[in-house]
Design goal:
The structure holds two protein chains of two kinds.
Chain A (H helix, E strand, L loop, with lengths): L7 H26 L1 E3 L9 E2 L2 H7 L5 H32 L5 H7 L2 H4 L2 H14 L6 H25 L3 H9 L4 H30 L2 H6 L7 H10 L3 H25 L2 H4 L5
Antiparallel strand pairs in A: 1-2
Helix pairs in contact in A: 1-12, 2-12, 3-7, 3-9, 7-9, 8-9, 9-12, 11-12
Chain B lengths: L4 E12 L2 E12 L3 E5 L6 H9 L6 E6 L2 E2 L10 E4 L11 H11 L4 H15 L14 H14 L4 E5 L7 H18 L2 E6 L2 H7 L2 E6 L2 E6 L1 H6 L4 H6 L4 E10 L2 E4 L8 E4 L8 E7 L5 E4 L11 E11 L5 E7 L2 E7 L8 E6 L5 E4 L8
Parallel strand pairs in B: 3-8, 3-9, 6-7, 7-8
Antiparallel strand pairs in B: 1-2, 1-4, 4-5, 9-10, 11-12, 11-14, 12-13, 14-20, 15-19, 16-17, 16-19, 17-18
The chains are: A mainly alpha, B alpha+beta.
Chain lengths: 269, 366
């Protein structure tokens, strides 16, 4: 054992660095949520406590209200997105549509343009037709955003269901809708579930569109976070951020179970 | 056809875009008959089956079942059941749910469905597997579930799309007989698509040989085997040896002219549709007889005698297989005793084993 493998050193360093990049800010965030007093040049908070948690969850604190608004909007966005993505995804996966690739790309357009000018114009338009400051308006903005995930993943999920399975049902007496309901939909369900989770998380995190279309009547958690952060109240901001993080991490752990390799391999095809 | 056709396909053409898959095809199938559609891949046999099932739309022609026009009917209204090559079992349903699905669609009562599922399981040897998912079954069991699912609804016509091609060779042999005896017992009309000649021969009442979207020949297994109507059918039925000769047809006799390797032979016409001129001869390796050059046994009347040189000998099992060279042609001939490499041998092909076709007919697909 004369030779000592020194490769562990750079490897350990890189892994350590990676861990720091990921967990460093998170640690900072968690520390802020329990810091009562913390100022420069101290490395760690001077006093710990939960008084800011009480302020966030107090009836006057807005946080619970915003959380409820956020979740309501996210659920409505998921329902609307899936209602559009299920028929669209099925059509894109089954029918021999011309320009199929172009249609799929079209759903990326909302992401392709710079957000601010788009939302300013949407806000102006919504203001004219009275949708500004309504939940419905915010949901519509979120749907345009979420649709790209919903349609792409739904198309992949339906493509992963063999047409033979559907035809087997047709051949022994199932009408087209019955075959879809009993065979195609249950088999595509995990993929659709995954797309629903993506849309939900996307909606929960969305800021720019909500800000222009919803504020100040509709306050979601990211808007609250923004207000607290820009007001210099890092404790409130951190607690709100932590609240936003919980569903994200939870769902990310779940989504991995729903998105099987055969579905993933068909995304965008 | 002597029997009244139960399923009647008339003047049917099917194509995708510019390509024609089936061209002006006619086919009649009697009630209770087991018909095999046999052909190499791409011959249109699966398309024909899928068109009958309603999954492909014909451009022209009609399909009738018991006098009822089903040409434009949806697949679920046709009273047929298709067994897929991939089995297409629903992985989210149990074996019992798979088998019972068609009955559930017919809104039968719970008890009736359960009784029928049990009956199917007993019939197919699937007892005790009812609560398993298809993923937990072996290939043979899956195949039987697929069959049970199709049979449970008592279809007027059972369509089988190469249902045995995904099975192990050994299981395939037993399943062949199982399906055949089941079909006989239940008296179902069945159409079976396959590219396996032996499978078609063993299972079917009638074999329909397809080539390039047309029916080349149809008839009983022994008819297509012993009286192939075209070089394609002869080759598909195992007559792989080809020789070219000149022939003169006069009345009921065919005279094969003397060539470099054969003496002239006169054989009976036997109803063959043949013109004088260049002909193509085909015969099976096992149908010819090999003797040494010095043998002096008399040539039986009508047989073709050839003389050639053995180029290689192999033993595939049961008999010796010789490659014999006749000028540029090489033929394969089986014999019970081996002949040495380089030896000059006599080959005699009996008249009944000799398939003669006019050369350069449009059917020469090789």
């Amino acid at each position: 054992m004369a030779r000592v493998d020194l490769w562990w050193l750079p490897r350990a360093l890189i892994l350590g660095l990676l861990a720091f990049i990921i967990f460093g800010p998170l640690t900072n965030l968690v520390l802020w949520t329990v810091a009562e007093k913390w100022y420069f040049p101290h490395m760690l908070p001077l006093e710990y406590g939960f008084s800011f948690w009480q302020r966030v969850f107090a009836p006057r604190g807005n946080a619970m209200g915003s959380l409820l608004t956020s979740i309501t909007i996210a659920i409505l966005t998921v329902i609307a997105s899936l209602a559009l993505a299920i028929p669209a995804g099925y059509a894109l996966s089954r029918l021999k549509l011309p320009f199929r690739g172009l249609i799929l790309l079209a759903f990326l357009i909302p992401q392709a343009f710079p957000n601010l000018p788009v939302y300013v114009n949407i806000a102006r338009f919504f203001y004219q037709i009275g949708l500004n400051g309504t939940i419905a308006g915010v949901v519509m903005v979120h749907v345009t955003h979420g649709l790209v995930y919903a349609v792409w993943i739904a198309t992949a999920a339906f493509s992963a269901v063999d047409t033979d399975l559907e035809e087997a049902a047709r051949s022994i007496g199932a009408g087209p809708f019955r075959a879809f309901r009993d065979v195609t939909l249950p088999l595509a369900a995990p993929g659709l579930m995954a797309s629903a989770i993506f849309v939900f998380l996307e909606s929960l995190d969305e800021f720019t569109g909500t800000y222009f279309v919803g504020a100040p009547d509709v306050t979601t958690l990211p808007l609250l976070l923004y207000t607290a952060g820009s007001g210099g109240n890092y404790q409130i901001a951190s607690i709100t951020a932590l609240l936003l993080l919980v569903p994200s991490i939870g769902f990310m752990l779940v989504v991995e179970r729903f998105l099987r390799a055969d579905v993933l391999s068909k995304v965008g095809h | 056809m002597t029997i009244q056709a139960f399923l009647k396909v008339e003047k049917m053409s099917v194509g995708y875009g510019a390509t024609t898959v089936l061209d002006d095809l006619d086919l009649g199938i009697g009630k209770g008959e087991f018909v095999a559609l046999l052909g190499s891949s791409g011959c249109g046999k699966t398309t024909l089956l899928r068109t009958i099932a309603g999954f492909a739309k014909p451009n022209a022609g009609s399909i009738r079942v018991a006098g009822r026009d089903v040409t434009h009917m949806a697949p679920d209204k046709r009273g047929m059941a298709l067994v897929f090559q991939s089995y297409a079992l629903w992985p989210h349903m149990t074996v019992a749910q798979n088998i019972g699905y068609g009955l559930k669609l017919q809104k039968r009562s719970r008890e009736e469905i359960d009784a029928r599922i049990k009956e199917m399981q007993d019939l197919l040897g699937l007892s005790g597997l009812g609560s398993r998912k298809p993923g937990q079954l072996s290939g043979g069991q899956r195949q039987r579930v697929a069959l049970g699912r199709a049979l449970a609804i008592d279809p007027e016509i059972l369509l089988l799309d190469e249902p045995l091609s995904n099975l192990d060779a050994r299981i395939r042999l037993t399943v062949r007989h199982e399906i055949r005896s089941l079909q006989k017992r239940l008296g179902i009309t069945a159409i079976h698509v396959t590219h396996d000649r032996e499978e078609a021969m063993v299972m079917a009442d009638r074999i329909v040989i397809m080539n390039a979207g047309r029916i080349e020949q149809q008839g009983s297994p022994e008819a297509v085997y012993n009286m192939p109507a075209s070089p394609f059918v002869a080759a598909f039925m195992g007559a792989e040896n080809i020789l070219s000769m000149q022939a003169r047809v006069s009345g009921e006799q065919i005279e094969l002219h003397e060539g470099a390797f054969n003496a002239s032979t006169v054989t009976a016409r036997n109803g063959r549709d043949l013109r004088s001129g260049p002909v193509e001869l085909r015969f099976r390796a096992e149908a010819a007889r090999l003797t040494s050059n010095s043998a002096t046994a008399a040539v039986e009347p009508g047989a073709l005698e050839l003389r050639g040189q053995v180029t290689s000998v192999s033993y595939p099992g049961g008999h010796w297989r010789h490659a014999v060279r006749l000028g540029v042609d090489e033929i394969l001939v089986d014999s019970d005793n081996p002949f040495g490499q380089g030896e000059i041998v006599k080959i005699s092909v009996p008249a009944t084993a000799l398939f003669i076709f006019n050369a350069s007919s449009e059917g020469t697909a090789h």
